[in-house]
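Input record, target 12 of the design panel.
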């Protein structure tokens, strides 16, 4: 489980009822750099600030000593693991009330932005149907409804699968069957999320994992796929990792008291959870368990992983009584992942020597006899692979971009050797995102998801025999969207050590001047080897169509440029992440994409750490910043092994119980480096039930900023009291969050027209 986030998630101001009352139509016409009346705008803001009581957290001295160094945290009391302390809840409510008041003058404009964003959505739609056995499976959204329906239709045709298949939808088509309606399940819950929806191999049962708090502790229900009736008892206190082991058993993972996935269990359908068999218990608190199913559905793989090492057990579904068997041994610094086809296991293996990974295969009856299929390459990172009965699709990264190559495989039973003659899938945009999707193992059809910053999310079926690619579904964007109106670019900033840092850029033609006067929003993450590839987000158009340039800084600590890119932005090299981001900002200013007065920045979770660090280092460089669920109390958190994720992340940030790491982490931890200086306009968000970043971290960050900063710029904190790391769960509620965030940025940049106030 990682501290990760996606761009632009902020906390909503309105309840679901109020959200649904807003009309889904465009109420304000976007224009490039609209000109407000600054004097009127400023006077309104000043008047509000004069009557608003800025929340001031009480100070309770709390000393922490390590290596003779004493740190004082006057706001340590804001941490309440029970989330019930009246003083804490009162303070969070005061912050929320203050945020609502300080944004009330632009509430009308926020509603307009929300209506504009929602107006781009085709509310009643279906996802690209996926063939699974004798059924098409898909999700349906309904007009005005927050959540999806999980549906299927029987496949009436006897023809073999083809990339040209289309699910019949007319009156003569087989009847649609709704397996599960999340809208019904969500009734009575402020938060509702399904983390797993797994259909049994025979298509008769469904197991789904449900979270109604946002704390990512799931309950799994098993239902009859035809009538929705419960089958057996439900399973409580588990992760979202659950897989079918044949048609009559489930394998799932539970967590310890610090929410570390530590035990894997076998559950026979119809039995009580108390009688489930524990297949493995990982006792090392730096390791966590994960679960994967082979595409062949013949094996399950239990992975025990730290941030640097991963080893694998396998379960033969036809021989469950044999329990778990070792596939790859635990070797420090060696990371493996696996799948199965025929009489071979296929393994992606990374080590210090082969840092960008190699792909090998071994016989089922001799897992030590490996054959190299794809060797390690310095400039190409093997990201993932997907197996089929006759093919393998390899997902790689080269020059900062994803790449998909398809290879034919010899018949099962024949000798397998190094893969050659692969066919590369072509993509049209200069910068883009591509991700694997579920496919049928027995077919020759590869499905993948593709998008770019100007191309809406698209599902493609690719014929691995012919190389023909067919678009199966592209997200509908209403409101006159035309991709040809937008430009995407890839630029490179140069760090002080000579490293070239890629930047992905989006803007609308004829709406920007590229003379330094345009507003720009720069997003960054840079942790966990996660790749923030340039993808599409329809809500972003509400900024870009107003003349904004949007950019992503692909900084070290992420995985965009290979394994070394990640290693050079973690542990004792973590500051490269922050200086890379500053370098990208300076590049954009120097090359006249924006100016300091028009530059806003955004990051979530570990990207929120990035925001906190660069705000302390270069507050003069930015006009506004949005830090979503930010990991900002790094040193205190990483010194406390009772906090979820701490022990498992010592290999990411360092173990501050060691003096070298203590002082290095202290030198950048945002809470520990706030000082008396001017800061830009800042919005900080949190979720009370967040298990990844405790709500108290952003709460303390804001409290200390209020105490120390020397400017009169806005500092707003919004804590969602009924959600977790990913904030509200409904699709329209999330749009409201985006509308609020964009309104904050536009207000900070004095870009809200007077007529909209």
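The sequence produced for target 12 reads:
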């Amino acid at each position: 489980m990682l501290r990760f986030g996606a761009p632009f998630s902020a906390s909503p101001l309105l309840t679901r009822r109020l959200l649904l009352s807003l009309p889904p139509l465009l109420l304000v016409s976007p224009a490039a750099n609209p000109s407000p009346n600054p004097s009127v705008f400023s006077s309104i803001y000043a008047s509000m600030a004069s009557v608003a009581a800025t929340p001031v957290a009480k100070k309770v001295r709390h000393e922490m000593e390590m290596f003779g160094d004493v740190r004082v945290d006057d706001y340590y009391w804001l941490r309440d693991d029970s989330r019930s302390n009246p003083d804490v809840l009162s303070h969070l409510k005061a912050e929320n009330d203050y945020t609502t008041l300080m944004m009330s003058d632009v509430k009308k404009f926020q509603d307009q932005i929300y209506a504009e964003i929602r107006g781009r959505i085709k509310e009643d739609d279906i996802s690209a149907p996926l063939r699974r056995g004798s059924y098409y499976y898909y999700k349906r959204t309904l007009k005005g409804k927050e959540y999806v329906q999980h549906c299927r239709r029987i496949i009436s045709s006897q023809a073999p699968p083809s990339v040209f298949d289309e699910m019949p939808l007319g009156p003569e088509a087989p009847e649609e069957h709704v397996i599960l309606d999340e809208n019904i399940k969500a009734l009575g819950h402020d938060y509702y999320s399904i983390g797993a929806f797994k259909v049994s191999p025979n298509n008769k049962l469904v197991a789904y994992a449900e979270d109604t708090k946002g704390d990512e502790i799931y309950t799994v229900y098993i239902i009859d796929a035809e009538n929705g009736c419960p089958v057996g008892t439900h399973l409580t206190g588990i992760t979202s990792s659950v897989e079918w082991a044949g048609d009559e058993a489930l394998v799932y993972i539970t967590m310890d008291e610090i929410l570390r996935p530590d035990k894997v269990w076998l559950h026979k359908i119809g039995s009580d959870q108390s009688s489930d068999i524990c297949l493995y218990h990982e006792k090392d608190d730096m390791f966590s368990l994960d679960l994967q199913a082979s595409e062949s559905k013949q094996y399950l793989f239990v992975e025990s992983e730290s941030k640097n090492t991963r080893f694998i057990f396998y379960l033969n579904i036809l021989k469950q009584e044999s329990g778990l068997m070792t596939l790859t041994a635990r070797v420090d610094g060696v990371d493996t992942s696996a799948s199965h086809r025929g009489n071979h296991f296929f393994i992606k293996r990374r080590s210090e020597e082969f840092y960008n990974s190699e792909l090998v295969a071994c016989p089922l009856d001799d897992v030590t006899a490996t054959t190299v299929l794809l060797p390690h390459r310095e400039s190409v990172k093997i990201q993932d692979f997907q197996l089929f009965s006759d093919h393998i699709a390899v997902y790689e990264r080269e020059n900062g971009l994803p790449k998909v190559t398809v290879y034919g495989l010899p018949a099962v039973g024949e000798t397998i050797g190094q893969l050659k003659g692969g066919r590369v899938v072509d993509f049209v945009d200069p910068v883009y995102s591509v991700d694997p999707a579920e496919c049928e193992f027995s077919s020759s059809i590869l499905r993948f998801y593709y998008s770019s910053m100007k191309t809406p999310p698209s599902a493609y079926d690719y014929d691995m025999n012919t190389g023909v690619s067919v678009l199966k579904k592209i997200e509908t964007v209403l409101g006159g969207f035309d991709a040809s109106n937008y430009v995407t670019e890839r630029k490179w900033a140069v760090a002080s050590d000579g490293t070239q840092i890629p930047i992905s850029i989006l803007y609308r033609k004829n709406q920007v001047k590229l003379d330094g006067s345009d507003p720009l929003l720069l997003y960054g993450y840079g942790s966990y080897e996660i790749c923030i590839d340039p993808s599409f987000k329809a809500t972003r158009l509400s900024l870009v169509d107003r003349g904004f340039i949007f950019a992503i800084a692909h900084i070290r600590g992420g995985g965009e440029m290979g394994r070394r890119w990640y290693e050079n932005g973690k542990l004792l090299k973590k500051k490269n992440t922050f200086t890379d981001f500053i370098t990208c900002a300076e590049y954009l200013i120097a090359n006249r994409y924006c100016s300091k007065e028009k530059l806003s920045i955004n990051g979530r979770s570990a990207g929120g750490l990035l925001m906190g660090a660069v705000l302390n280092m270069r507050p003069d460089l930015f006009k506004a910043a949005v830090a979503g669920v930010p990991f900002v109390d790094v040193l205190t958190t990483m010194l406390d092994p009772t906090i979820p994720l701490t022990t498992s992340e010592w290999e990411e940030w360092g173990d501050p119980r060691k003096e070298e790491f203590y002082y290095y982490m202290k030198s950048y931890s945002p809470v520990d480096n706030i000082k008396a200086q001017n800061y830009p306009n800042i919005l900080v968000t949190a979720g009370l039930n967040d298990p990844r970043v405790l709500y108290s971290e952003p709460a303390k960050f804001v409290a200390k900023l209020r105490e120390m900063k020397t400017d009169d710029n806005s500092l707003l904190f919004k804590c969602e009291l009924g959600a977790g790391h990913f904030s509200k769960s409904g699709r329209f509620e999330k749009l409201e969050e985006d509308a609020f965030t964009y309104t904050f940025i536009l207000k900070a940049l004095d870009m809200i027209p007077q007529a909209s106030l």
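Residues 16-120+480-756 form a domain with the Rossmann fold fold (CATH 3.40.50.1820).
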